[in-house]
Amino acid sequence: VFDRCVHIDANLSAMLGSLLDDLKVKGYNLWLTHPKSDKVRDNLSRNNFFSAFNPDYIAEDTENFIEYKKFSPEDSETFKSYIESQLMQKQRFPAHTKRAGSLIQESIMEIFVNAVCHGECSYVYSCGEYDDTKTPPCLDMTIVDRGHTIPSKVNDFFVRKSLRPVDPCEAIRWALREGTTTKS
After folding, report:
1. I want to staple 165 with a disulfide (CB 3.0 to 4.6 A). Which of 3, 6, 155, 169 is the partner?
2. Interhelix angle for 76-83 vs 98-117, to 10°?
3. pTM of the model
4. Do 151 and 168 touch, CB atoms closer than 8 A?
């Protein structure tokens, strides 16, 4: 899989893991080759991506990485603990007030809950990296579900309400407006 890869952002492992799982479900046999690029190998090692597919693989320094993990829809408490241990308690994550920490966790939890409730997915995949060497420091975190998309849910709702479907960008804008919902 990684023979020719020369760069991958660590947070993209969530998408890659979901795609590999989807291929396995469809009956494909998969095997991961070691990346030739040291940078790719380091990123996929430090976020424990390789460990998810090979439990004997030993991860290196993971202080600024948010571990690659796969969660079932029932794992909301586990996901909450994951955010706490993999992000909030990391030494390199910026100091913050208790209130700010709660708001950060609440915002990330909302993404997980929306993936489960609206996406109706089988699994949620997550990982990331906090890079304090960038100016300003940057958190790249990816949360992936392979369920229903926002545009499909919005357009299904519109059709049920006898409204015309909209393009994907407009559907997302509609979904992000305060007070809008596809729930009955």
Report:
1. 155
2. 140
3. 0.84
4. yes
